[in-house]
Amino acid sequence: MDFFMEDKRNNEKMDFKKRKENMCNSLFEVEHFLRNLKDVTKGFKLYNIIKK
User: Fold this and answer.
1) With left for phi above 0 and alpha for psi between -120 and 50, is residue 13 left, alpha or beta?
2) What span, in angstroms and rounded, lies between the C-alpha atoms of 7 and 14?
3) 11: alpha, beta or left, given left = phi > 0 and alpha = psi -120 to 50?
4) pLDDT score of 11
5) What pLDDT, on the 0 to 100 scale, is given for residue 9?
6) Which DSSP category does 11 fall into?
7) pLDDT one-digit tens code per residue, 1-52
8) Whose CA, among 18, 33, 37, 41, lies 20 to 30 Å from 27?
9) Separation of alpha carbons 1 and 39, rounded Å
């Protein structure tokens, strides 16, 4: 949230193109994390089935 405050304090124009690019990169990283987490949970379920 600090990056929003910086623009207000410095009275600079916001660079919407850069903000949009950063937001898209962040969403892309979150999506990959969630997909990897889903694969990990599948692995744990498989491990538990094999373990029994």
Assistant:
1) beta
2) 7
3) left
4) 52
5) 56
6) T
7) 455 555 555 556 778 888 888 888 898 898 888 888 888 888 888 888 888 7
8) 41
9) 31
